Every structure is written in structure tokens, then in C-alpha cells.
């Protein structure tokens, strides 16, 4: 991503951002349920999806290695709907990005169709130029399986775009609870990279990804992740 999202991963949000989602959005409409059923029939439901997807479409991956500090995962190629935000703080960027993307799935697209919510919300976080400088964030929703093959509708908002990530490997650290601010996210990322450094493993520096799987009203069994691309020469530029 020119800062345009890579991953998948990780790669974003149980954020405070998600607080912007209306209560009714958490319940799929009849049309969304029909679409999801059609997707299940044509694409096949991922019956091995992890528990933290909570029956939502989410990126498919295989765990190649697992330790107490991290997992090495290989993700399948996937399509995303993304938006770039420049802000001083993660919470501000997440809120702005989530609102734009929620409008898109709520019908602000060229086909005026509602797109089912997925998990997780992923935020790419780049390195800030320095103290008191704005940072570059990319917030992304995974495109539902129903649209992965045929293509998602084009956004109406010029600040929202469709992106594609090839199959890739990432190192992921996981935690529960509420992780909604820069300090908590940075601490997770630092613990992950410290563990990778201690193990002598190569990873792409200069950016990382935060993934949140839960709305703010879910108080228990929450799940958050941070991730970095595996390998020094990892290319985070998605196809446009």
C-alpha cells in the first residue's frame, strides 16, 4: 500500500471506532442473511474459522508455527475495502475510517447494495515522522466471500477504495480485553517485535497491523491482534 493496505492480516478493530456502528448493524438484515447463505453455498463456509470470527466472514489462514509469544500464519489472497487517514492518534483515525467504510457497506457504493459486515477491522499503522506529527493509517474491512470472486461494488466516496492482498505470511500476537488506544497497541507491537528479535526472525519494519474482532458492547471473550509481515523484503503494496 502506498500506505495502502497489505494484509490482511492483521492485520484492525475492536476499536473505539466500532462504537460508531449502529446497534441494528450488528444484526444482519434479511437480505444480508440471504446473501450470506448464497455465499455459503457458492463459496463454501469456512467451517474451520476460528472462534473469534463469531460466525462472520473473516480471512482464511493456516498456522505454520505457534509459540507462547507469536504465531506464524499464512493468509490466503483476499480483497478488501480500505481508506487512508492521516491523524495524530489511532482512535481518531479509526473512527474516521470506520465511518467511511460503514457507509460503503451500508449502501454508499455504485450498486447501492448493502454488504454484510465482516471481521476483523484491520488498521495498518505506519511509522510517524516524529513527535507531534500526524501518522498515516489505513483502515480496512475484509470483503465478504460472496464478493471475493465476483468483485465488490465500487465505492461512491473517492477516499474509499478496493484493494487486493496476495497470499502472505505474517507474525501475529494475540490478546483479549479492550485494546483501543495508541499506548496499548504499541505495547502489543513492541512485545511481538521483541520476541521476534530474540528469536532472530526477520520481519518487515516500519509498519504493523492491528486487528480487532469485537464491537464495543461485547464485554467478554474479546480478541485483538497485532501483526508484522514475515521476511525483511515483504512487500506491503496491494494490487489496485
From TrEMBL:
Provenance organism: Chlorella vulgaris (Green alga)
Protein's UniProt name: SOUL heme-binding protein
Family label: Belongs to the HEBP family.
Keyword Metal-binding: no
Signal peptide: 1-20
The keyword GTP-binding belongs to this UniProt entry's keyword annotation: no
Keyword entries, A-Z: Signal
Pfam families xref list: SOUL
PANTHER family: HEME-BINDING PROTEIN 2, HEME-BINDING PROTEIN-RELATED
